[in-house]
Amino acid sequence: MSFKRNVFINCPFDDAYRSLLQPLLFTVLYLDFNPLISETESSGNVRVSEIIRRIKDSKYAIHDISRNEALNPGDLPRFNMPYEMGLDIGCQTFSGSEKLKQKQCLILDREKYRYQRFISDIAGQDIKDHNDTPEILIKRVREWFTTILNIHLPSPTEIWEAYGEFWADTEEKLKRMRFTTDDINHLTFSDFILLFNEWIPNYKAARGV
Fold it and tell me: Is residue 45 part of a domain?
């Protein structure tokens, strides 16, 4: 897809965030956008170069900084998400390219003002909270696209119900293909994008959406 339909997704890719990232990717695709996730395509690629390329290829970005914390006692907080958010905001702010100046981003956190404790420089941005709840996250993403595009989009309820139907259909299909429950629980996010891309057009066509 083109720059105008690409959405850079900056968030954790660990198991703890899986219950949020799956509906996030589903929502972006359901709204006819193309998510670009910061996974490198080759072990030989420099990760930051791949991230910058995806940022430059995307008019939109969604940054979830809700996991900027230590995973275990004694660990340091994770700074990947604020770092990638800074690259994206810098890209639109300092670039001489008129195309990149069109970029827009949504910043998500668990609680609306939690970010002030670790990254107060983004005070003044309209940070959206999702309370670690998939249904609220879908609502926030849909509301953001509606606001910046100024067009009617499917309701949060429609997207949430479609996501539930996707799982009902797809789990059955994967089990027929001899995927175990563990296999399904550990599908890559690239797998999910492929599955969503296959399922969503059929679902919409069957319902005349």
Answer: yes
